[in-house]
Design brief:
The chain has two domains: 224 residues, Glycogen Phosphorylase B (Rossmann fold), CATH 3.40.50; 151 residues, Glycogen Phosphorylase B (Rossmann fold, 3-Layer(aba) Sandwich). The protein contains 15 helices and 13 strands.
Length: 404
């Protein structure tokens, strides 16, 4: 039995979407016959993780009273009330991320201790935060095979603004080059993996996010207007870098007589809350609040069409975890951002359509077409590759190939 040390700052029971990939990996890799130890942060909470032989939770300054971001992280979790704020200015100076200061000083020595105490075949580090990979790099220098997984690009189309100073940008690129010490890298989308292989020369594999066929909604979501075609958007918007402006301009051009409504469920910034509460959007936009996960899943399944807002051309590599929740809901999907990986996956699986993320006229036309019906015909064979039992089998093969 291969023994894997999985290193991730975020893990269950955290309500953040990054933790759900860790939940799926531990659950389904254990069913592939792997023994997993999860090294994570107390920021994620306490308790066991399904499939993990052991869970080691280290201190983290972000889980302490010193954390200036703790309230924001709580709001970004499902079910937590309140608005989230913009990232602090201090975050723009901490390279590669705040976890390098808050968690790495605790995680790295604990990882070294774990490796001294027992024999692992592979260490698997997953980001963001990118500083998790510094744990893998340190263990690789001791001879342990290392798989580095990137859910977002590091310097390639990152989800954050560029560093404000040239020395910070240079340091970030230098830290990214530590990935060259990995036995293999995994990108959750094709563009991320291709960039890593081309620039850094490391063997790169694509293992996307996926659908957990055992996860079911609970209860019911907020009622939708039966007289309108309900587009439902769940999760965050502005904090990912996407903009609601073009979508709201499209809705204003359609007017309330269009019999369309867009329902937003998830955490909002104060600016977004003000935008969506504008009087001229009355009847076109509804805010359902930040819902817990079972209610969110139920709302997705009640929608007429599911809406995914991306940054479009600025981040073509994006295919968020939310997209795969949408695939499981068995409802048509409309992606704003026709250049993105999300758009490609929706086209490949026959689960919807895509349009511009920035052109209000194109968005208005796409909303109208979706409301009139778009011949929803999912391709079950294509969808099968995005289910966690299949994805975990591929991951287990990769671990077997690099493990000692």
């Amino acid at each position: 039995m291969k023994r894997v040390l999985l290193v991730s700052q975020l893990a269950p029971p955290s309500g953040l979407i990054a933790a759900r990939r860790i939940a799926a990996l531990t659950k389904y890799l254990s069913r592939q016959g792997l023994e997993l130890t999860v090294l994570t942060s107390r920021l994620s909470g306490e308790g066991p993780i399904e499939g993990a032989a052991e869970v080691v939770r280290t201190p983290d300054l972000l889980a302490s009273g010193l954390n200036w971001r703790r309230r924001q992280l709580e709001v970004l979790s499902e079910g937590a009330p309140g608005d989230y704020g913009r990232p602090s200015r201090l975050q723009s100076l901490l390279v590669p991320d705040p976890a390098a200061v808050s968690w790495l000083p605790f995680a790295l020595p604990r990882a070294r201790r774990l490796v001294r105490e027992r024999e692992y075949d592979v260490v698997l580090t997953t980001s963001p935060p990118q500083s998790a990979h510094l744990v893998g790099a340190a263990l690789a220098r001791r001879g342990l095979p290392w798989i580095a997984e990137l859910r977002d690009g590091w310097t390639f189309q990152p989800p954050r603004p560029d560093w404000p100073l040239a020395p910070l940008r240079a340091l970030d690129r230098r830290l990214e080059r530590t990935l060259r010490g990995a036995s293999a890298v995994v990108g959750v989308t094709g563009p991320i993996a291709a960039d890593l292989q081309e620039r850094l020369g490391v063997p790169a594999h694509v293992i996307t996010n996926g659908v957990d066929p055992e996860e079911l909604p609970g209860g019911s979501g907020p009622p939708l207007d039966p007289a309108r075609h309900s587009f439902v958007h769940t999760g965050r918007v502005e904090v990912t870098g996407a903009s609601l402006g073009p979508l709201l301009a499209a809705l204003r051009s359609l007017g309330p007589e269009s019999a369309v409504e867009v329902v937003f469920a998830g955490p909002l910034s104060s600016d977004e809350a003000a935008e969506l509460g504008s009087e001229d959007l009355s009847g076109l936009v509804r805010v359902a609040g930040n819902l817990d996960r079972p209610t969110t899943l139920a709302l997705q399944r009640a929608a007429d069409t599911l809406l995914l807002v991306t940054e479009g051309a600025r981040r073509t590599s994006v295919a968020t975890g939310k997209l795969f929740e949408y695939l499981a809901a068995d409802k048509p999907i409309l992606v704003l951002g026709d250049e993105t990986e999300a758009a490609r996956i929706v086209a490949e699986t026959g689960t919807g359509a895509a349009t511009s993320a920035t052109d209000p006229a194109a968005i208005a036309a796409a909303l109208t077409r979706a409301a009139e019906g778009n011949g929803f015909q999912p391709d079950t064979a294509a969808l099968a590759q995005y289910v966690w039992p299949a994805l975990s089998a591929r991951y287990a093969e990769l671990i077997e190939s690099v493990g000692r």
